[in-house]
Amino acid sequence: SAAIKLDQVTKTFDGRVMAVDAVTLDIAAGEFFSLLGPSGCGKTTSLRMIAGFEHPDSGRVHVGGKDITDLPVHKRDMGMVFQSYALFPHRTVAENVAFGLRMRDVAKPEIERRVAAALAQVALTGLETRKPGQLSGGQQQRVALARALVVEPPVLLCDEPLGALDRKLRQQMQFELKELQKRLGVTLVFVTHDQEEALAMSDRIAVMNGGRVEQVGTPTEIYERPRTRFVADFIGEINILEEGGRPRALRPEKIRLVAPDGARVAGTVETANYLGGSTLLRVRPVAGASMLVRETHAGERASRAPGDAVGLAWNDTDAVA
Ligand code: ADP
Ligand code: MG
Q1: Residue 246 above 80 pLDDT?
Q2: Is residue 294 a contact partner of residue 278, using CB atoms and an 8 Å limit?
Q3: Which one, 8, 74, 79, 161, has least CB within 10 Å?
Q4: Which residues form the signal peptide (predicted)?
Q5: Ligand found nearest the CA of 42
Q6: Residue 244 pLDDT > 80, yes or no?
Q7: Predicted confidence band at 172 (pLDDT cuts at 50, 70, 90)?
Q8: ipTM entry
Q9: Residue 73 to residues 24, 50, 69, 276: CA-CA distances in angstroms?
Q10: Could you give the CA distance from residue 147 to residue 85 in angstroms, rounded to a whole number?
Q11: d(CA 161, ligand 2 centre) in Å
C-alpha cells in the first residue's frame, strides 16, 4: 500500500466554482481514510484529482512518495469503485472482474487464478457466469469491488460505494469492506456524506465544507472534540449552549436527567423518540431553546415520558467547540 499526500490542492470549474480550495491531506499507507461532508463540498473532485480524472489548478498530489500530479489515469495504478457500480452489463461477472488484468496483458491462466481469488475475497464464488442484471445490488457492488481489487492496487478509491444499498445491506457491507481493507492492507480513500458510516469505518476522517478541510482526526476526535461549529453540527446531534458568553456545543448523551429542583436547567419533556435501546427526548426548558437528551436504557423504555417535569445536568468539560 502507498501513502497519499495532497499539498495545497485547488480546483475551480468554469473559473468560478471553487470546488476544492487549498486542500492539504496526509494519508498514511494502509489507512482507511474518509472524506466526509455535505453534498457539493468537494469530496468527489478531491477523489478525482487523486485518481487523475481531474487536474488541479494548483497544488501537487503525491502517492508513495512520488509526485503523480501530471501522470495520466491509466499510469496511476489505483482501483476505483463508484456508487453506480459501472459494470459492463453484457459481460459476465468473471469477465467484468478480469477487465483490468486483460488491459494489463496478464496471461490467461494467471487471469483465471486471480479472478477466482478476487471473487472469493468478496464471497461471490459460484456466480462467475452471471450477468450484472442477474445480481442483487449488494452482489453488483461486490463485483465492482472485486474488479477494482483484482489488480492488487496499492490504493483503492471509493466514491459513496454503498450509497445505493438499503440500510441493512449497507451496514453488512460496511463491516465487510473494512475487514477486507485491513486484510489486504490497501490504502483506502472513502467518500461519504453519511456521518455514521464515516465514524464506523474510518481510521481517520477529513470533514469538508465548501471545498475546504475543516478538521482531520480519528472518529473519536471528530465526534468528541469537534474544532468548529460546522463539524460539531454535521456529526450527530448537538445542543448549542448560549450561557456565559461564547456559545458551546453539548452532545445529547452527555446530559443526565435529574430532579427539576436545583437543576442547571429545568423543563418539560416535549417528545420522546424511541430508537431501540435509547430514546431521544426533546426537553422544553422554562426559558431558552429546546434541548435534546439521549437516554440509553437496558429496559424497554426511557424513564421519562412527554409531559414529565425534568431537570438537566452535565459536566462543563463535556461542552465543546
Ligand atoms: P461532493 O462530491 O462533495 O458532492 P463535488 O466535488 O462533486 O462535491 O462538487 C464540488 C463543487 O464543484 C460543487 O459545487 C459542484 O457543483 C462543482 N462541480 C463539480 N464538478 C463540476 C464540473 N465538472 N463542472 C462544474 N462544476 C462542477
Ligand atoms: Mg460526490
Answers
A1: no
A2: yes
A3: 74
A4: none
A5: 1
A6: no
A7: confident
A8: 0.99
A9: 21, 9, 10, 46
A10: 10
A11: 11
Q: Which atom of ligand 1 is nearest to the CA of 37?
A: 3
Digit-coded pLDDT (tens) for 77-122: 899 998 888 899 999 999 999 999 998 899 999 999 999 999 998 8
Burial of 231 (0-12, 13-18, 19+ CB in 10 A): buried
The predicted model scores a pTM of 0.91
CA-wise closest residue to 286 among 308, 262, 268, 269:
268
**Strands across the sheet containing 66-67:** 17-27, 4-13, 58-63, 66-67
Choose which residue among 10, 11, 17, 234 to substitute to test ligand 1 binding: the one with the highest number of ligand atoms within 8 A of its C-beta.
17
Strand, coil or helix: 303: coil
Spell out the residues 6+ positions from residue 16 whose beta carbon is closer than 8 angstroms to its own: none
Q: Residue 167: which residues within 8 A CB-CB, separation 6 or more?
A: none
How far is the centre of ligand 2, averaged over its atoms, from the C-alpha of 68 (Å)? 22
